[in-house]
Amino acid sequence: MSHDKFDLDAIECLDKPEVQLYNRGMAKTPALLKALTVAGSATALADKIGITRAAVSQWKQVPAERVLEVERLTGVPRYELRPDIFGVAA
Fold first, then answer.
1. CA dist., res. 2 & res. 43, Å (int)
2. Number of other residues whose CB lies within 10 A of the CB of residue 13
3. pLDDT tens, residue by residue, 43-60
4. CATH architecture of the domain covering 8-86
5. Average pLDDT score, the chain
6. How many CA atoms lie within 13 A of 62 on its CB side?
7. Residue 42 predicted with pLDDT over 90
8. Which one of 5, 50, 53, 72 is CB 3.0 to 4.6 Å from 43, fit for a cystine?
9. What is the 3-state secondary structure (H, E, C) of 44-73?
10. pLDDT score recorded for residue 8
11. What's the pTM value of the predicted model, to 2 decimals?
């Protein structure tokens, strides 16, 4: 996708954390963006997990060792967070 093209749906919601992360060039999986949105921010999720915001900000997807914790804290199912590990929910 060219940088001079815009997603019209994204223009309407530029304040959303997932749009801000995307615009900073930090492509994240949709499930991680959902977890960050539920948590409120990368800082909030990091605080709940007990790691630094910088660590969470580096994630492109939830690390395998953090999936169950993120699922517990956000309610985003492990099957969404890491379908490559847990498969797709039936």
1. 31
2. 10
3. 999 999 999 999 999 999
4. Orthogonal Bundle (1.10)
5. 80
6. 33
7. yes
8. 53
9. HHHHHHCCCHHHHHHCCCCCHHHHHHHHHH
10. 42
11. 0.69
The sign one gets for the Cα dihedral 57, 63, 66, 68 is: positive
First to last CA, the chain: 32
What is the per-residue pLDDT across 62-83, written as a single tens digit (0 to 9) for each? 999 999 999 999 999 999 999 9
Predicted local confidence at residue 9, as pLDDT: 43
- Secondary structure (DSSP) of 70-86: HHHHH---HHHH-HHHH
Contact (Cβ atoms closer than 8 angstroms) between residue 35 and residue 74: yes
Determine contact, residues 59/28, Cβ cutoff 8 Å: yes
Rounded Cα distance between 59 and 2, Å, is: 24
Q: Answer yes or no: are the C-beta atoms of 40 and 67 closer than 8 Å.
A: no
